[in-house]
Every structure is written in structure tokens, then in C-alpha cells.
Design a protein that fits this description.
alpha+beta, 4 helices
Length: about 150
Amino acid sequence: MTFQDLKPKIKSIISNDNLTVDERLLKICDTLERTIAYYNWVGFYFKNGDKNELKLGPYVGEPTDHTIIPFGKGICGQVALSNQNFVVPDVTAQDNYIACSITVKAEIVVPIFVNGENIGQIDIDSNTPNPFTADDERFLEFVCTQVASLLS
């Protein structure tokens, strides 16, 4: 299945008013993790109130101890400050990487903006070295725009 094929599925999940926001976010995580072979952990982190930290939201994959991440720490914490996508082809090459699992080889994090403010991000870990392309980035930007429409 291509990213183009997935876009209508994401839109359908977002527009399903029979599910809570968290249920929709979890369904997005599940859909991405099941559909894209190299997406091995898919989750959302959101700004934790007025604190300079991220709080784990809905996710699919191995349980993580990283339920709170201070801004600036790890890939997610860096994206919270930079407001930029962060693609990590090899997590072992990153000094500021927070290891969630020894199986993780690569990570991609894309911020979610509501009214110009970075309110969270989608975080994807892969057990495959260097799997993420510009197509992943564009698709995940689409997902984040859809999620932003749900949260605004």
C-alpha cells in the first residue's frame, strides 16, 4: 500500500466522530504500524500543559518508559524546540538520542502545529536502518496536518 492509498484512510479516521480524539489517534498509530513494514513503533507526544516537556499520548508498539520528555532531550525533545522534522537514519550516530529499545535503528519525528504553535508530534521508530525517505516526511506532514485539524 502506498502513502497515497493511506491518505483517505487517515482522513476517514480523523472524521469518525463516533470515536474519541484519543481513539482516533490510536487508530492512526495502529494503521501506520500495521501498514508500513518498517514503522515498528508509532506514537504521539504532546506538550504537557505549560511545562517545557512532552507527554506521551496514544501509541502502538513496545511499551516505553519515556512518558515524559523534557524539551531539548532526545529527538522528540529537540523537535519540540526546533519546530522542524527530524529524520535519524542511524540512532547510534546521535549523541542526544534516548534509547527506547535496542532493536531501534532509525527514527523520524514530525511536529504538529495548531495556529502556528508546535503542540506535539508524531514519533516513529524503525528496526530497519535508514528506511525513511522524503516521501515518509511528506506523508507524515499530511498526517500531522490532519491531526491538527482534529485538535484545533
